[in-house]
Design a protein that fits this description.
Elements: H1 5-8, H2 10-27, H3 30-47, H4 53-73, H5 80-83, H6 88-106, H7 109-117, H8 124-142, H9 144-157, H10 163-182, H11 189-198, H12 202-228, H13 249-274, H14 278-296, H15 300-316, H16 319-337, H17 341-350, H18 355-370, H19 376-382, H20 384-390, H21 396-409, H22 418-427, H23 431-455
Helix pairs in contact: 2-3, 2-6, 2-15, 3-16, 4-16, 6-14, 6-15, 7-8, 7-13, 8-9, 8-10, 8-12, 9-10, 9-22, 10-12, 10-22, 10-23, 11-21, 12-21, 12-23, 13-14, 14-15, 17-20, 18-21, 18-23, 21-23
Protein name: Citrate transporter-like domain-containing protein
Organism: Sporosarcina ureilytica
Length: 457
Amino acid sequence: MKGSPLFQYLYIFYTFVFTLHIANIFIEHETLNYMIGVFALIMLVVSFIGASRLFLILSVSFLTVGAYLFWTTGESVSVIPSIITSNLSLLTLLAMLPWMNSVVRSGRFDRSLNTLMRANVSDLGKLYTRGSGTTLTLAAFLNLSAVSISQEVLKRNLAPVDRKVRNAFISASTLRGFSLAVLWSPLEILVALPIFLTGVSYVSIFPWLLLVAVITFTLDSIWGRYYFKKYTYQATDVNEPEEVSTKGLGGKIFHLAGALVLFLALVIIGGTLFEIDFILTVTLLIFPFTLIWSVIMKRLRSFWAIGWNTWKEKTNTMQNFVILFISLSFFSYSISSAAFLDVIQKPILYVSEYPLLVFFVIQVLFIGLSMFGIHPVATLGILGSLISTLLTVYNPLSIAIVLVTSAIATLTVGTYGLVVTLTAMSLEQSPYRITLMNLAYAFIFGGIGTLIAYFLL
């Protein structure tokens, strides 16, 4: 079914709807919004065909519960198209992310970082910080692809190491490095969504997320250095010199870091000058930024060849996100309008005098549900109405920090999550072992965010 023309050209339909939605953000026409909602319903139905079982279950659950709650409100079914467009901005952002991945690949920055990772290290303790840091840097642009790249390099170079030690090393260094990269990235949906829900600006939350990342990376690097230093490291390739030359790598890393800083600056400046929200700013900037970057590097042809094919492939396979976000829009609206909402909110309000307890419960909820296959985006949807209540009690910035750090922490322990599942397949081990290996890290990671959020109240 996925090989049929329907799925080969699905990107055209998706792009048409996303373009209409972006245009209507500026036009703000109710009739056009309703038409977009009708298209969103068609997207939902079509996308059910190619979605995975987990996302089908999540979407059907949201639609079923949402339908019941919507029925209790007494509203007309005719309003449904106009209420399911709220998350289309997030879907549009997801559709644009492959272009950033493509410009990094066309500039061959991924190869340079991989060379740097294995240059001149004598034990696994030193390699741990290098591996985690390299994954972190690579993931800032390549997102999930960075995990696969780093893991493949480490698997080759750690082939002589005991399998148990090797798997623990790879699952810890790559997943943790990845989580710290996406924690502050404007390209990460788990950062964008809490910002969207709380209404805080990216510029206000960015320094605090960066602080969490720096503290967590420092503590984890110290742990990794001492935990793995008893294992020696030796290059497996007989043709590879013992001392790997890093000549020229400094310029590549500086170039990549400079581009990232420039992109973040443009996001902040553009959003402030034109008074548009964070998600829209990032979405509109990605393509022109990467296009100009490729021209400056004289890699336009390579960028376009890689980017066009990657973008079509990724957009054609967005079914999971389409059914999740559209059903989540319906669920969020329905639960926010339901009569029994006060019953859910009262327990939270009752303990609102103990913010540290509330923040910790949120963190545990994210991690606990992720271990049973509940995606953090779904958890954010479940907490949507409660978040609205908490925003009237606490500093929105504190709530946003807790939500972001709690959601990102699940990337290292979500037993059935995409990142952990791909790692388990790559290492040929149980995802539960990966979860167990990173569980303490996830709680410490989220705990650092919780403490910072608490002091900002």
